[in-house]
Amino acid sequence: MNDQQLLRYSRHILLDDIGIEGQEKLLAANAIVIGAGGLGSPVALYLASAGVGRITLVDHDTVDLTNLQRQILHTTARVGQPKAVSGKETLAQINPDVEVRTVCERADASTLAGLIADATVVLDCTDNFKTRHAINQACVSARVPLVSGAAIRMDGQVAVFDSRSGNTPCYACLFPPDQQFEEVQCSTMGVFAPLVGIVGTVQAAEALKLIMGIGESLATRLLLLDARNMEWTSIRTTRSSDCPVCAKAQN
Question: Which of 29, 124, 143, 160 is deepest in the core (most CB within 10 A)?
């Protein structure tokens, strides 16, 4: 690290859990953020400010006026601009040393396979089950840890799925791909603006911990947040022996 970096990241370096070694791991990391909306905004902002060396923003959508109530990565002047491009501009203003790549297309299986192959960590900030399952499949195949978040109305959830370990569940263990789940979206159900900030910030914290190898991750827990009453619930999760994704990958 140069003198400017030592100064910029000094409050991290002062922490016994991080120090210079931990900060250097962040600088060398490659984080894939899929979804540059409500959850992706705080995720990307904190990864960049913390000094994650390379961040890839993946989003096929454009900034809409209705996004600005909660998607703090974007501004009124950027309405109509691709979200990934808008996000890159914001991150450059916060930390110009971070390399930000943009992928302005939908995260399908072929796109994900190429992106995740050399990733340090992947953050799922999307809003539909089909994409979530595609991300999970790619992360299990590449053995890359996945930090997943969700937020709708006044409810949020956060989980970590670390396929590097042989005894922790993947996303499909909790939400089997052959089961039908109700697709709920902000455009029809609404979402409490600070909720995505809370959930996204927890996602960022878990990702930074995974990169540096510090603390205990959420790899065997599902955190649920009731923002109406500001109550967290932690549910223990286990791996499914007949999971069509991670159990198959082990065989």
Answer: 124
